[in-house]
Amino acid sequence: MNDEVLDELRALRSGDLPTHGGRTLAYVYDSAVPGLDELAASAHALASSVNGLDPTAFPSLLTLENDVVRMAAGLLGGTAATVGTVTSGGTESCLLAVVAARDSRPDVARPAMVLPATAHAAFHKAAHYFGVRAVMVPVDPETFRADPAAMAAAIDDDTVLVVASAPSYAHGVVDPVTEIAAAAAAAGVRCHVDACIGGWVLPYFRRLGVELPPFDLTVEGVTSMSVDLHKYAYCPKGTSVLLHASADLRRPQYFASADWPGYTMLNPTTQSTRSGGPLAAAWAVTRHLGDEGYLGLAERTLGAVRLILDGIARIDGLRVLGSPDSTLVAVTADRDDFDVFTVADEMKARNWYVQPQFAHGTSPANLHLTVTAANAGSEAGLLADLDESVRAAVKAGPVPVAPEVVAAIRALDPDALTPQEFAGLLAAAGLGGGDSALPERMAPVNALLAAASPRLRERLLVEFLGVLYS
Fold this sequence. Notes:
This protein is α/β, with parallel strands linked by helices. It folds into 3 domains: 40-286, Aspartate Aminotransferase, domain 2, CATH 3.40.640.10; 291-396, Aspartate Aminotransferase, domain 1; 403-468, no CATH class. It has helices spanning 2-13, 36-47, 59-75, 90-103, 122-130, 148-154, 177-186, 202-207, 247-250, 277-313, 340-349, 379-396, 403-410, 419-429, 443-451, 454-468; strands spanning 83-87, 112-116, 133-137, 159-165, 190-194, 224-228, 240-244, 255-257, 265-267, 318-320, 328-333, 355-357, 366-370. Helix 10 (277-313) packs across helix 12 (379-396) and helix 11 crosses helix 12. The chain is globular and about 60 Å long. This is Glutamate/tyrosine decarboxylase-like PLP-dependent enzyme. GO terms for molecular function: aromatic-L-amino-acid decarboxylase activity; pyridoxal phosphate binding. Pfam families: Pyridoxal_deC (PF00282).
């Protein structure tokens, strides 16, 4: 019976994007280190039944978490005063940074946080969950880096947090953290650096000779940082670290409740019960790879990034947005006779997944590539298929969307539409659900979604998610 169950699971998994081999350039991070998956799985199994709810009952998890936090702090300029928490992922780390900032200022009736327009959507989720107003500040239209002067000007008496990225997800560029943190410190406001993606790889890039602006806890005014272990620490999904410069800064993050007849609830994260499995797997992987192992993986990744950037520059019709500092590359069309959404479909037909990103502000529609160590050695194949995909997209031409359809979409009020009207829109966009929830080619769908306002696109995709989980 066990074999039958596992065979069924394997059959289901066969329909997923590949998580190894470097052909899925979003969502997953592959070290390509032999045996690492097996080590992580064994460690996960050893601790999967252990409950992180009470570290006094399961002191092994306390040791593992302190070890992992110590490694992160050492990598990111921490001091003896630095403290941290292992969370379930980057979004949870960012949520906790926001709630800690909010709850540290009970005197502020309408707390706000200042975000560059390129800050991760996790901060908008935090604003939604915790009633913190998000003050959006435009970034440089060419470099896509945050504008320190504009960020400073946006800080007021209601500001409880200022955010910078190292790097930003959309374009892979590091914000000018030194100037932003200085402005926050001058106003007596916390400054969080979202290094969920870069925190475990940029320090090694620097050691390999890459010139990077300061971005870690050595920067005066930086009060907290997030770094994901399931990204460039190459650990299994479900682990991130939130660092605070001191225990006093972390304290508002904690939640305690004794006003009920059960046990006194005490939580450092948004979760109560937490499996020890992901933490144990992360501890095992980071211990196994060690400093030299991560340096070698960073060197392989850096080499792949450079080859891919050089290759894209030679593909007629493509250009890279900004000047990436890290491992993330955003590629757009530099002429109007083809559609990048069609390029994404063509790449998928060649067994590559690149992530479409919609236009926003001065950032045009583009394709996002997350480069990992697993891409080292396969750069030529990726670039050849990307070149072929552009040629095929040019031959197909831009995805047609009639002007009257665009006008009708833009006139819709997402807050006034009924569920039935949303269902009609989903069906018209090719997202009607059923046995095959998504069409084989997504370019026509993405072209229609691109014509929608961000608010309408959010509502449409929320309704679509509801269809998927029905």
